[in-house]
């Protein structure tokens, strides 16, 4: 009889260990599922933010062009100063979203960040140097939202 109780106790210990291992695995699976869900939500939020920002960039560009066309005689008028302040708010908003202008003028052409829409030949400048920016490009965390459209110096 004592052997039967010992066997029963060992059997119960084994079942308890199996139950504990199963519970630990289920807990780990649940924690991994939570992390995966949070990552998917974060990626979705980033995607939606970038989509909205991408749609706002042409408005931002046109606003900047309009400001550059204000006659010098009007730049000190209250309305022009107000437009400048609004433009600065746009810049702050884009910066807070992680959007940055892609530097181009005077840099070497990089097809990952720049799109060549024309070329010149000037022996005084380096080959493939960007000589003019036609449209500013933007990036988000080293991901190009829109490449900078440029004119390059082509000596070949």
Describe this structure in words.
- The chain has 156 residues and is of the alpha+beta class.
- It has 2 domains: 1-97; 101-156, Head domain of nucleotide exchange factor GrpE (Nucleotide Exchange Factor Grpe, Chain A, domain 2), CATH 2.30.22.10.
- It contains 2 helices and 6 strands, in the order ααββββββ.
- It has a 3-stranded antiparallel sheet with strand order 1-4-5. A 3-stranded mixed sheet has the order 2-6-3, with no helix packed on it.
- A hairpin with a 2-residue loop joins β4 and β5.
- The longest helix is centred in the N-terminal third of the chain and has 67 residues, at 2-68.
- It starts with a helix and ends with a strand.
The counted number of beta strands is 6
Content of β-strand: 15-25%
Tally of DSSP helical segments? 2
Alpha-carbon Rg, integer: 30 Å
Low-pLDDT residue intervals, each spanning 5 or more residues: none
Main β-sheet description: 3 strands, antiparallel
Q: How many discrete structural domains?
A: 2
Instruction: Classify the oligomer.
Output: single chain
Query: In whole angstroms, how far apart are the ends?
Result: 98 Å
Structural class, judged by helices and strands? alpha+beta
Mean pLDDT level = 90
Element pattern in H and E: HHEEEEEE
Helix content: 55-70%
Main β-sheet, spatial strand arrangement? 1-4-5
> Shape, please?
elongated
């Amino acid at each position: 009889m004592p052997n039967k109780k010992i066997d029963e106790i060992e059997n119960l210990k084994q079942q308890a260990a199996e139950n504990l291992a199963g519970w630990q695995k289920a807990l780990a699976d649940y924690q991994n599922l939570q992390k995966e869900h949070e990552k998917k939500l974060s990626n979705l939020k980033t995607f939606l933010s970038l989509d909205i920002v991408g749609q706002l960039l042409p408005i931002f560009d046109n606003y900047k062009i309009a400001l550059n066309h204000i006659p010098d005689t009007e730049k000190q008028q209250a309305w022009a100063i107000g437009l400048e302040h609004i433009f600065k708010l746009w810049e702050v908003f884009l910066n807070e979203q992680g959007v940055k202008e892609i530097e181009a003028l005077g840099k070497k052409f990089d097809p990952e960040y720049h799109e060549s829409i024309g070329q010149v030949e000037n022996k005084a400048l380096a080959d493939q140097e960007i000589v003019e920016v036609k449209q500013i490009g933007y990036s988000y965390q080293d991901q190009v939202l829109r490449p900078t459209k440029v004119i390059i110096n082509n000596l070949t």
